[in-house]
Write a structure and sequence with these properties.
Layout (H helix, E strand, L loop, with lengths): L4 E6 L6 H11 L8 E7 L4 H8 L4 E5 L16 H6 L4 E4 L2 H6 L4 H14 L2 E6 L3 H5 L3 H12 L5 H6 L1 E4 L13 H18 L2 H6 L1 E5 L7 H5 L6 E4 L7 H6 L2
Parallel strand pairs: 1-2, 1-8, 2-3, 3-4, 4-5, 5-6, 6-7, 7-8
The structure holds 2-phosphoglycolic acid (PGA).
2-phosphoglycolic acid binds next to strand 8.
C-alpha cells in the first residue's frame, strides 16, 4: 500500500496577512502536483486570507497551534472548532519551539491531539531530540517516550489518518540537515513503534515526515528513503524553493 506524500510548510511567525497572500500567489504555479498533498501551516492571523487565496488550488491550509478547549475564558487562544470553521484541515502539534519556548508538555500535547481529532482536524505531531540527546545515544528512547505519551488514548484508525513529523532539534533552522540515513533510521523507528503500540496496518498507513533544514537541494535524497513520506519545511517554505521540494 503506497502512502501519499505530504509536503507541509511551517511558516512560523513570518508573513503579515498581505505578505501571506502575496506568497501564496507567488507559489501557486510552482506547487502544482497531483501526486502530493501540499499544506501551508500559517500564523493564525493569516488563516482567513490564505484559505481564500488557495481556493481552487491543490493546497490545504494548516494551523501552527491550537488550544484544547472549544470556547470560553482563555484569552488569546484559538480553538479547534474555530480553525475548522475557517477552513483549516491540519494542525501542527508539539513543534519543538512550542515545547521549548512555551513549555508545552506531553500530557498537554496528548490532549491537543485528541481535541484535533474530535474537531475533524488532521494533526501533524512533531517529535525530535536535542543534540545532547543524540550525542548521548538516547535519541530513540526519547522519541519513543514522546510519541507514546502524545498518543495515549488515540485509536488505530485515528493514527492511520495522522501525520508524524520527525524533527531533530539540532537541524531546525540551523542549515544542518540530518543525513538521509539518520532521518530514515528514526522514521523507521517511529513506524516500528506504531506497529508495536497498534499493529502493522496502522504503521504502514501513518505518514511520517522529516523536518529540519530540508531544502531544494537535499529534499530528493531525504524523500527517497522508504520511511520518509514527506517533509515539514520551515525556512524554505517561504520561497520558491518550496515548489522544488514539492516536486522532488
Ligand atoms: P527549518 O524548520 O526547515 O527552517 O529547519 C523546520 C521546522 O521547524 O518545522
Amino acid at each position: 500500500m503506497a502512502r501519499r506524500r505530504i509536503i507541509a510548510g511551517n511558516w512560523k511567525m513570518n508573513m503579515t496577512p498581505s505578505q501571506a497572500v502575496e506568497l501564496v500567489n507567488t507559489l501557486k504555479d510552482l506547487v502544482v502536483n497531483d501526486a502530493v498533498d501540499v499544506v501551508y501551516c500559517v500564523p493564525a492571523i493569516d488563516i482567513v486570507p490564505v484559505v481564500e487565496a488557495v481556493k481552487g488550488s491543490n493546497v490545504a491550509v494548516g494551523a501552527e497551534n491550537m488550544y484544547i478547549e472549544d470556547k470560553g475564558a482563555f484569552t488569546g487562544e484559538i480553538s479547534a472548532p474555530m480553525l475548522v470553521d475557517a477552513g483549516v484541515k491540519y494542525v501542527i502539534i508539539g513543534h519543538s519551539e512550542r515545547r521549548d519556548y512555551f513549555k508545552e508538555d506531553d500530557a498537554f500535547l496528548n490532549a491537543k491531539v485528541k481535541k484535533a481529532f474530535e474537531a475533524g482536524l488532521t494533526p501533524i505531531l512533531c517529535c525530535g531530540e536535542s543534540l545532547e540527546q543524540r550525542e548521548s545515544g538516547v535519541t530513540m528512547d526519547w522519541i519513543r517516550l514522546q510519541i507514546k505519551s502524545d498518543l495515549v488514548g488515540v485509536t488505530a484508525d485515528q493514527v492511520k489518518s495522522m501525520v508524524i513529523a520527525y524533527e531533530p532539534i539540532w537541524a531546525i533552522g540551523t542549515g544542518k540537515t540530518a543525513t538521509s540515513d539518520q532521518a530514515q533510521e528514526v522514521c523507521k523507528g517511529i513506524r516500528d513503534l506504531i506497529a508495536e503500540i497498534y499493529d502493522t496496518d496502522t504503521a504502514e498507513a501513518v505518514r511520517i515526515q522529516y523536518g529540519g533544514s530540508m531544502n531544494a537541494s537535499n529534499a530528493a535524497e531525504l524523500l527517497s528513503k522508504p520511511d520518509i513520506d514527506g517533509g515539514l519545511i520551515g525556512g524554505a517554505s517561504l520561497k520558491a524553493d518550496f515548489g522544488q521540494i514539492v516536486n522532488a
